[in-house]
Amino acid sequence: MNEQNMSIYEHIGELRRRVLIVAAVFLGATIAGFFLADSLIVYLQGADEVKELEMNTFRLTDPVKIYMQFAFIIGCVLSSPVILYHVWAFVSPGLLEKERKVTLSYIPFSVLLFLAGVSFSYFVLFPFVVKFMTSLTERLDVNQVIGINEYFEFLFQFTLPFGILFQMPVVVMFLTRLGIITPMTLVSIRKYAYFVLLVIAAIITPPELLSHLMVTLPLLVLYEISIGISYFSYKKSLKVQEEEEKFHVQ
Q1: pLDDT digits (tens, 9 = 90+) for 41-63
Q2: Which residue, among 33, 69, 56, 48, has the nearest Cα to 122 in the 3D structure?
Q3: Is 0.85 surpassed by the pTM of this model?
Q4: Can you name the residues that pair with 56 across neighbouring β-strands?
């Protein structure tokens, strides 16, 4: 009983240590974000698709709010590899040696996929969205007054979900290695998954066919890639189980 209690205390102490490390790294990354935010905000305001739009502030606190939001997001992105590593390090004792190596390799892929999703949404889709919105404003013959706070909130709401959606292959690979899902399951629910992705695409894009297709098709391709990755991970898991059974028999 005492050994079990000591083990629990050790786990709590380990968790506390890693939380403090992650908090310190995130704080440092956020402080760095304050120095990087200015250049990034100016760059985004000067992008070709919005440089003709006049940005306004409606409250004295808007610039501060924008700075804080950018610093926080930059801090999250810069510290994400460390955060993911410590999450992995905390749960890795419960994994097999081969599973530890495989799941550790997920971290750089996860960060790269997030950046790829944000880049895809900003450089490919966002110009079409801005063009659609401005053309609609012109057709309605209304005066467009754009608040910088509202503009960046819309930009975050449009781009950041793509970074999360692009995590699909990594999440599927991880859940397959844990035995929670199988590629057969993904194939059997394909039509339902397609419907959900279509709904997501409809929510995050304006009511315009080309933009909707430009979002939907990559998401469907990602799902098919995830099925292929799941097959690969599933075969690896079966191979590991067979090796373990042979070892126990011997």
Answers
A1: 888 887 777 777 778 888 888 88
A2: 48
A3: no
A4: 147
